[in-house]
Each structure stands twice: as structure tokens, then as C-alpha cells.
Model the fold of this input.
Amino acid sequence: MRSPSKRRPKKGLEPLDWRELAEAPALRGLAEVLSTSPDAARERAAKRAEVELSVTARTSAMNPNPPAEIHVRELTSCETEHGGDPTTPKSRFPAPLDQFSSLSLASAPEAGPTLRNVGTLPETETTTVGVTTPVGFKTNGEPLAGANADMKGAATPEGVPTVAVAVTEDLTPSVGRTPSVNNEDLGASPGIHVAQAWQREGVIAESSEGTRPSEVGAPTVGATFSVVVPPTEGVTPTEGWTSSEGVTPSVDNGSLSTSPVEHQSGWQVKDNSVVVALPTEGLSPSVVETPTVVGASYQPPPAKTAQRSTDGRPSIANYYRPVGAPRTVGGTPTGAAWWADATGSTYESKRVQRVVLAQHSMSLGEERVYETLWHARENDGVVSEHKRTKTFSLGYDRIARLVRLNEKSVRALLPRLISKKILEVVASEDSANRIGRTYRIFSYEEILERQRNAALTHIVKNGRAVEFVWPVAENSPPGPPPMAATIAERPVASRMPPSRPAKAGVSQSTDDKRSVDVRPTEGETPTVITHASGMAPKPASAKSQSGNPPVLKQSHYTAQLAAKIQEVLPSFDDEALASLWSRCVQAAPDCSAEEVEYCFKLKAQQLLGRNTKATNPVGLMLWAVPKCFEGAGALHLAYREQKRAQEELQRQAEEEYQHQMNEYRRLIADPATSPEDRAFYRSLLGND
Amino acid sequence: MIRIVVSNQRGGVAKTTTAVNLARCFADRQLKTLLIDTDSQGSISTILGLKPQFTLHDFLIKQMVLKECVVQANDRIDVLCSDRKTAVAEDIISGQTLREVHFEQVFGETGADREYDAVVFDVAPSLTLFQTCAMLYTKQVLIPAAMETLSVQGASASISSASQLNRLFKRQPGIASIGILPVMVNNRLQMTQTVMAALTDMSGELNVPLLPGIRTDTAVVKAARAKMFLADFDPKSKALEDYEKAADILLNALRPAAVNEVSIQTTA
Done:
């Protein structure tokens, strides 16, 4: 028997009275809203701007290259430039197009990792060049606690020369077994990552099948990589170990301590040389007996391997040499007998070493601070702004806690890291808000580049310290060198390497071209051109030098244009700007600096924004921007027309405004106007 | 030129959907259409899957050229998208005198909209400056109303705003509410009948035409999920059929000549 239905009885809906809804209290006050005076709105906008400013200041302190966000500050500053008060913008119309400050190309990721050309390997032989013990393993081959042996997809920080070797899970990285790289496990992306990481390190990994990963980007499937095992202290790797050009790499076991990374840097730092393990020809590297890593029981590999170094082939160690760096092992390139550090102390040349890896320039303490800060998490306050840079706003106390050193030590180490171009100060501390000084920390590759740009190329080890040195002229007697100036006091030009001389009349770009922050680091000159005359230096007339027509046809570009363009693209120097101006003037003789700036910024945003693949942004802009000035539908003409229309509008609006106000006054005076309307019109007139 | 602002001062009443589908219907009738999103939520770019490089903020504040700021969503539809910065732009412009006629100035008087046959505005679901600007610029307000109480209240608020603006600015012609468009109509629900009755009453009282309703249709949300126009996603959907009817009525009311041109072209 069916149970009685439990459905609730339907209730009929009451009719909906829309009038009642329309008169709801929530909808009252519409007239007041519509008649809010512009002054009140301005106040509201100013308050909002203040809030935005504080947020922006804090954000930019953490990340000096903000994303392409618009800030109220930018807008109020537009009005300030036109004579208004930033807090009470008086412009009746939006500020003219003069601010693209939100456009930070430098904040955009650069055009992908650049593969370096690491030279050519001998084609006839398959050389397996060793890599260090992979991250995640102790030096004795055992996995580190908590380390994931399968590093598939491991997010290795870009630019960090970690030893990104992928290890399959089933392999036990014990002595005698070599972790193999398996592309199937790695997938495409991590494989490329691995290869690039190696290339950045200057390490060539070549598979046993003869495929070179430097070109392919990923190791061959199933390719096996041998392991370089650093010799232990006191062991001279004469047999089976070939150091470059006969220099025996001395290994400091103290630096081989615990972490594989330190381990790696420890042996790489020494003596400008790289230790290479050469397997026996025809033998798989995994078959080669791998020597014990740690301890004095290290025995060199079989003598067969040693023979490889005597057959006249180029030393494998040369492949570790960064591109462009001269041979350094076996002597200093300048041949100077005496070298001096920044304090004036002199050293014999035999103590001097060239900085081949960024780690060479760091002492143990400095390296510890660097490593800890670079690998710190975002929770620790270290924000990755770029694959080559990170920023952090930490005080000495927090850094000390992070790196587990005494605060005094940190106070001493940080200035040294700054002077060595490993860190730079981005913003000063904000004591009121308890925000520490903001630093930018660079990747190894970036550090090396910065140091080279600053002519910091040679070091000497002085006890536990590592000091930069410069050659003393040969005829100078031993003693305090002529270069008594400190690093910070040296002019940038004098620190430029010979291959990149500072050009007269051309502003010197900073060593960090990727950075949008133009504030100089300690002792550096700022990048942005600020000429006292208000005009940029006139480029040398090409005619006078080479018989070509003069570069400029029309008036010169202004320093303001130069500064604005360099804000967008810091590497766009005077020479490029002169060329750009010349091309624009050729395309449109009546073009103005404002139009060039507009087109440049527009094109920069379109072409060099996020995810750009442009490797030569300056060249790209030199090509693209003049195109805006060509043809009847040129972009600058549209801009010009719109600007003209805006001016006309402004004039009409002024007239209409006056007309409207007069109309309100007339209506107020009109006896036919209802009191309610009169009050309403009075409120509209407001402070007028 | 046809200019319409789709307004209802309540959220979730299919303003954006209506604006997008009407724009598509206009475009299908050979009208070059500009769809402008003034809602800082940027819903149009989301449901059409657009990735604008420049937005309404760039056009209004940085004074960029309109054609650089729009995104082409279709052969005949350009979209001026919006994002969070629209709120900033609104703040800036509200500090100006004659702020209410700003759109009239930047779109109309500069001739930026000259190359379009139809301009459709989607506005935020509240009483914002840009809604006022859009109303004063277009002078035609279409009010979608969903089948629930608050939507009716929002519709009445929009009509009230239009009349207030007329009283304030005394323009000729003034802002006209060109129709109440019932959306999400499901005749099987009792609430639909109730709301439709209220809307009919409102329509008669305020002399605003009540357009044929848009039936509820899951294809609408699926199209948004697929980031496509409804006409592309499901050309046979019920909702699209209803939007086509509404578009024809609007075109007849606003631009009889345009419809005639279209029918001539179709016949030919």
C-alpha cells in the first residue's frame, strides 16, 4: 500500500510590486550621487592614490621591476608635470600620453635562455665528460635525507649553476654506478633545462652515442653520463685524471664538506682548472671504476685514461672555459709580475688566479651567505624577479638567522658581496615600517658578467679571504700599486674590460642591462642620461669621419626623450637613439620627439613585452619604430590627429561648461523652477 | 549609427551575455560593431577568451588610438576590453568637470567610433560614472531583467537613472530606455510568471517596451566556458534564436534603414 504523499502543498506566489521595489531605501539618493561635486571625486581619487602609493612603494621595494600595472602615482604625476598638484589634479581632461612608466620591459622575461657555444668536440671520438655528483646525493653517493632521487621536473632555479643531473629512481648512486639520464623520465622541458644548466656551467655533457646535448638541448635517451669525482686532499691526480695544461688542481677538503653544491664549488674553485674524468675508450662510463669520493682512500682510475691526455688532443678542460675567456691556466694573461688589491697590498703573480667561475671570487663565508640567500624560499622573503636575479628585503638579523651566521659576520660579509658584484642594494631600509634594506642577488652567470664588466677578473686568496687584484705596471716597483683607489672609487670606464671600452660621448650602460632599476649601485654611475644642458650630446657627425651624410637631419632629440626611452629599454644607448632619430626623421621629417616616444613605447610593449623571443631588442626597435612613421596611415599621424582633436575638445568643453553653468544659474533664477530643482541646480553649481 | 548601453543595476542578470550576443547579432547583420566593456571585472574578455594588450584605461587615460586598443573578436566585431585599471580610470575621470559627457567626447566627437555602425556598451552592475557616461553617449538603454525580484529592482533603478540624467542634462534627444529584455525565461517556473507580470506592469507604466524574452539555455554558459560566441558554439540554440529576434526588433526600432539594407542584401 502506498504511503500518502509527503509533498508540501504549493504556495502561490504573491504578485511582485515593482513600484515598491523602485522606492526601496537602497535606491534613494541617486540625485546626490549624480551631483557629487568633482572636488569630492578628486579627494576620493587622491586618497586612493595615497593608498596605491604606499602599496606600490612597498611592492617596488620588494620587486623593483614591477609588472606592467598602472599606478595611480603615475597618473597623478602626469598632472603634476602639467602644473597641477598631485593630490588635487586640476586637469579637466586626462593627462596627455606621456607616461608609460608601468611599461617595464626589463621586468619582462628575457628572450629565453641563450645557449652558449661551448666549442667543438673532437668528432672522431666519443668523449664522456664527467659531471659532479648530482644534487641530492652525498659525496659518497648516498642519497641525501629527503632528497628526491628522481629529479624529474625538478624546479631548478634558472641561472643557478646547480648540477641538474636527473637520476632514475631505480638506480642506486653508489660508487661504481653512474646515474643515467633518461629522457623519458625527464620529459622534454627538464631535459633541456639540464642541458642548459650544464652549458651555463660550461660543462659539456656528451652522450656515449655521440649526440651532443649542447645542440639538441636534451640528452639522448638512455645516454649515460659519467661522474667526475673530485680528488681528495693531498692526492695528486696524476694517473687517470687530466687537469688542463698540466696544472694540478689542488683540492681543499674543507670546502668539500657536506652539500654537493658546496662540494662542486669547492673543487671548481681551485686553481682555475677543472677536473675531468676520461673513461677508457669504448667502455661505458658506468663500467669505469669510479673512485671513492670521500676520504684519503681515493685511488685514481686506471692508467688507461691517463694516456688520453698525451695524444695531442685539446684538453677537455678548455671546454669548461666560459666563451670568450682566454686561456688562464698556467699563468696570468697580462704577464704582470705584481698584482695589487684594493687596499694596495701587492701579491706575486703566482698567487693570482683568474675568475673563471663566479664561485672563485667568493670566500667560504661569502659563498655560504650567497648560496643560502639564492636558494631561500619566498617564505623567507626572497622573491624571484627574473631567472638571473632575485630580490629580498631583509635586515641583518634576519639574514643572520637565515644563513645561520653571527649578525656581526653578516654585517661584514654583505658589503663584501656588494663590492664583488654579487649583491646590489636596490632600496634603502624603511625603519618606520620595519622593512629591511632591499637587495638584489644575482645568479652565478650574472655575477660573472657583472664582475667582468667591472674589470674584476683576478683574485688572490689571502688566508680565508678572497680579494680582487689588478696588475701593477711592470716598471713599478713592488709595493703599493698605483691603483690605490678603492673599487667603489674607480670610474666605470676604467673598470671596463678591453673588449668593451667605454665610448666617449656615449653613456655607459650599466652592467646589468636586464634591470629596469636605474639606481646606481655603490660607486657606480647611473645609467639614465641626464645632461645639464637639457640636450643629449650630439652624436659625432658621420660626415666628418667617413664622408657619409650627417646623422641628424632635423633638430636633435631631447635628453628627455633619451631618458624616457632608456626607462623602457635600458640598453638603448645614445648611439642607437641617434640612429633611431635619424631614421624617424628620414621617414617623417616633421616628426616630434613626443611622437617618437609614443611609437617607441607602443612598439616596445607590442614587441618586447612578456614572452618575447627577441634576442636583439635594440635592433628590433631600430627596425620597427621608424615603420610607424612611414606611409599615409602612419601611426604618428593618427596620434597627432587624436591629440589635435583632444585639444579642440578641451576648448569646446570649456565653452560647454560655461554654458552649462550659466544655464543652471538661469534656471535657479527662473521663478518657474520648482524649489526641489532649484536646490538640485544649486548643488550642481557647488563651489563655482 | 546604433548605440546601446546594456544596463541593469543588479549583477547576474545577463548584461554581458546580452551585450555580447547582441553585438554578434548586429555583426551578423552586416553592421561593423564595437563592443565596449566598462566593467572593471573584464567579463567580456573572459567569456570570449580575449587577451587584450590595451584596455579601456589605455584609451581613456593614456589617450591611445582606439584602433590600437581594441581586440578583433570577429570580422565585424571589435572589443574594447576592460580590466581592474578601469576603476582607476573612473577615479581619474570623476575628478574632472563635465565628467558625465566624457564618453561623448572621446568616442563621439573625436570620431573614434566613426568606422562602426553599432556601438554596444556593457556596464558594471552598479551606479558608476562610466554607466552614466555610456548612457549620455548612447542615449539608448537596454535593460535586461532576469526572472527574480532584485533584477526587477535593478531594472527600475536603471530607468530611474536615465530619467534623472535627462532631468539633469536636459539634452535633446534625451536618454531613452529602448526596452526591457526579460532573460533566463523559464515558463515552467511560477516565479517567471510573477516577474513577467511585474515587468509588463512596469513597461506599461513607464512606457518602456517589453521585448520578447530570452529563454534559459545551457548553451549560453557552455559557450562562455568554451570562450566562444553563442552563435559559433551552438547556432541552433534557443537563446540565440531569441537574441536574434530581439536584435531585429531593436534594429527596426533604432535604424529601420539598416534593416532594410540588410534585407536587400540578403535578398540579392
